[in-house]
Design goal:
alpha/beta; single chain; about 260 residues
Length: about 260
């Protein structure tokens, strides 16, 4: 026997009207209004009879409000102070790390770039001489001289250097005088640069080996003049090979140098 299915009315989102709850709400609201009215009436009577009490109560309420505001500002101030202290501590740690980090010394950097199979694991064959300033480039060249066994290495470049930037004594005892030109690819060393250097490298600095090292290249007249005077022209490829250890040092290219 099949039982008839009981039909269930679907629920809607609207609540049914409850007379009891509504009546209770209005009763409570009336009681609250009565209490507030009584309190206002009492305060008004008290104010008429004893106005000093009203002033005291107002001052007490104002003091409570101010105390709450101060406490809130104090909490905000404490939070701000904590954040500032944390930021200051982080800044101090960062400054100490920067202070304790070893400064990059260009001669030392160039000196530790030992070439060949014995090169350290951190050896950088992409050392960018173009990124150096002129005085940094001079110190880097001096570092290469020290690395390859030169003694009495001095960086003398600057005002009044008379064409010499680096002075050194080669491992075989010859006096090496080097002028450094940190030029870009579009600025080649010209004959005037060679002539100025050739006029002092032998007569003033008493060079046995005169070298002009550049990050660029040489013009044809400059290379011709250097060949006539016995000056070693060391351009970008030669400098890179010297740095990598795949090419000779500049003083190894000549057995003896005759001045102009």
């Amino acid at each position: 026997m099949t039982m008839p299915a009981r039909r269930v009315r679907p629920r809607t989102g609207r609540r049914s009207f409850d007379l009891r709850s509504t009546a209770l709400f209005f009763v409570l609201l009336a009681l609250l209004l009565c209490v507030l009215g009584f309190a206002v009436r009492t305060l008004a009577g008290t104010a008429e009879r004893r106005p000093a009490w009203v002033v005291v109560l107002c001052l007490g309420g104002l003091a409570a409000v101010l105390a709450w505001g101060r406490r809130r500002h104090r909490l905000l101030g404490v939070r701000t102070a904590r954040r500032a202290a944390a930021a200051l501590e982080e800044g101090v740690h960062t400054a100490l790390e920067e202070w304790e980090a070893p400064a990059v010394d260009i001669p030392a950097v160039a000196d530790r770039y030992a070439a060949g199979p014995a090169a350290p694991s951190g050896y950088d064959r992409a050392y960018d001489y173009d990124a150096l300033e002129a005085d940094e480039f001079e110190r880097a060249v001096a570092g290469l001289c020290e690395r390859d066994g030169c003694t009495s290495v001095e960086v003398v470049g600057g005002a009044g250097d008379l064409g010499a930037d680096v002075l050194a004594v080669a491992p075989d005892g010859r006096r090496v005088v080097i002028q450094c030109k940190r030029y870009g690819d579009g600025h080649r060393v010209g004959s005037q640069d060679l002539q100025r250097f050739g006029g002092t490298c032998y007569t003033v600095h008493e060079a046995d080996v005169a070298v002009l090292v550049t990050t660029s290249d040489f013009t044809a007249p400059a290379a011709e003049y250097a060949e006539q005077c016995g000056i070693v022209c060391f351009g970008r490829p030669a400098l890179r090979a010297w740095h990598d250890g795949t090419g000779p040092a500049p003083w190894m290219l000549v057995d003896a140098t005759d001045g102009c």
